[in-house]
Amino acid sequence: MDNLISLVNKIQRACTALGDHGEENALPTLWDALPAIAVVGGQSSGKSSVLESIVGKDFLPRGSALVRKEIADETDRETGRSKQISSVPIHLSIFSPNEGQPDSIVQDIENMVRSYIEKPNCIILAISPANQDLATSDAIKISREVDPKGERTFGVLTKIDLMDKGTDAVEILEGKSYKLQYPWIGVVNRSQADINKNVDMIAARRREREYFSSTPEYKHLAQRMGSEHLAKVLSKHLELVIKSRIPGIQSLISKSIAELEAELSRLGKPIATDAGGKLYMIMEICRIFDQNFKEHLDGIRPGGDKVYNVFDNQLPAALKRLQFDKQLSMENVRKLITEADGYQPHLIAPEQGYRRLIESSLVSIRGPAEAAVDAVHSILKELVQKAINETAELKQYPSLRVEVGNAAFESLERMRDESKKATLKLVDMECSYLTVDFFRKLPQDIEKGGNPTHSIFDRYNDSYLRRIGSTVLSYVNMVCASLRNSIPKSIVYCQVREAKRSLLDHFFTELGGKEQKQLGKMLDEDPAIMERRTALAKRLELYKAAQAEIDAVAWAK
Ligand SMILES: Nc1nc2c(ncn2[C@@H]2O[C@H](COP(=O)(O)OP(=O)(O)OP(=O)(O)O)[C@@H](O)[C@H]2O)c(=O)[nH]1
Hints:
By secondary structure, this protein is mainly alpha-helical.
């Protein structure tokens, strides 16, 4: 028995030390599951006196009015062992509502009391003074409310010695006038005069014993009256309750440990204190982010296929929209050839005119090429954002999240600029040197299917111009088909591959030069999370200790 109660005491003490009073902050609570005794009763009914005599020690301020303020200062006290009364120490915490609310104080106290005694683990000591009508007893009223069957209520009748002459409490104590599940226990505590005279607990106890054994009305009940008997009954009951609660407490503890551990791992590790540890932590988080980003491109996570869509749909569609055939209408061909000829019309073939026509068509490919670079850039940005959101570790550190995001976006922009330069160069290269072979084959082709009316003196007639237009169109189409293949290569090389390879390289270089303080700033966790982690860790420690204690007692049984 002793080790059971001392176990509950230990756990209760640990709960108190770690701030578990079964309230607020949404942490799992052990407090509510632990068996407890609450003493309830009207003002000056004798609550403090009963509590002290059970415990066998003077430790509470007593008497009406005095009491509330002092109790507020006297929270969380623990009693010592006392051979005279009970070998069982009871861990005691006293709670009182805040002062300074005169209008609502009665209701506040009632609510506070109710909040404790309505818990099924609470044993209620309902104190009623014998010199008042039981029908008006606050203790009976409130305990009936929360424990209608009286399964955990012990009725205690105080001030039996103060009853009017000619009246007695026999009817009540015998359970005739007011029956409770457990028999009433009458007590005689020290009067105010005794307290003033410093009558000690031992003397008070002796007098109480004498009172019941020598008063004719109560003689036959003496065996089950008095503070000592009350302490024994309570202690026995407490033992039963604790025994029955242990399996429930054990499973509550295991469940709570699992919950606490899960939340702690969701919150992530606490921040390292030294510069090296911080740097390592940042690099590690970046590595996880970088991995997530790559997985998007490699198809492990979604989104990378959008890049292919740019090459397969967007770029070809944009090239198609250029409508070279319209650019090479007869009118445009005539205009460019005439302009290129200048004051001296061409003699054999309009070499300059050809070049201008080709160049003016090819230059327009720059637009779709640039658009493809930009489209891939937006997709990469989107994937960076996704990867950031998916990196749980970055949620923990808002500053690092911003810095990593900015560094990644800056890198992508640098890569976009490079890609634009390289991709436009491909187009410009096509403008700057034409494929000679294509044109060398031309005269034969023209001769084969040529117009017999054509003569070199008939330079600007429609069919001549149309022929030039269609030659240029087929050349431009040939170049366009080849750029359609090479532009994606340039983009993948400069942007996609580079992003996979070196997205955070710049960031890492800068990181290497940072001081511990700057690294600390990047890991500036939300203070609420830090507090929560500390609270969770403390509570976990309590539960683990409680688990070990309970297991030891349960196995020893
Ligand atoms: N004669 C006699 N006096 C008692 C008895 N029980 C309590 N008293 C006296 O009644 C007064 C109030 O007792 P407390 O134990 O302080 O009562 P309480 O319910 O704790 O009081 P509050 O906390 O102020 O409501 C004190 O002066 C006690 O000495 C009793 O059984 N007999």
